[in-house]
Amino acid sequence: EEHLDLDDGRWEDIHVITGALKLFFRELPEPLVPFGHFDKFIAAIKIQEPALRGRCIRDLVYSLPDPNHDTMKLLFRHLCRVIECKEENRMSVQSIAIVFGPTLLRPASEESNMAMHMVFQNQVVEHILNQYGHIF
C-alpha cells in the first residue's frame, strides 16, 4: 500500500530488490503454489517419463487459481530474463530454483522430510523455468 520511489538511491543495490521480492513471496499467507497443490506438484516431478511429467506439470500450473497462475507467469518470465544474463549475474536455472523453490512451493506444515521436499521443490521450479515457453 506504500508508494515506493524506485529512483531513490536505496533501491540501487539489486540484492535489496531481490531480497524484497523473495520476502514478499515468503510472507504470503499461502505460497504462490497453494498448499493444496503441493503434493500434486511433488508427485508430478517424480514421474519418470519426461513427456508425461511435462504434461502433468503444465496441467497443474493451469489448475492454479487465476491470480496465482498469472503471477507465476509474470514472475517466471522475469526469472527467465534473469537467467538469460547468467554469465554476468551467475544466476543459472539451478541457482534460481534453489533460491525460489522453497519460497514458492512449500507444504502446509514442515515435517521431518523437509530436506527431501526441498530437492523436489527446486526441481519443480527448475522444470517450469526450463519449460516456460511450453507451459505458458
UniProtKB/TrEMBL annotation:
The keyword GTP-binding does not apply. InterPro entries: Rho-GAP (IPR050729), Rho_GTPase_activation_prot (IPR008936), RhoGAP_dom (IPR000198). GO terms for cellular component: cytoplasm. GO terms for molecular function: GTPase activator activity. GO terms for biological process: signal transduction. Pfam families: RhoGAP. This is RHG27 protein. It comes from Alectura lathami.
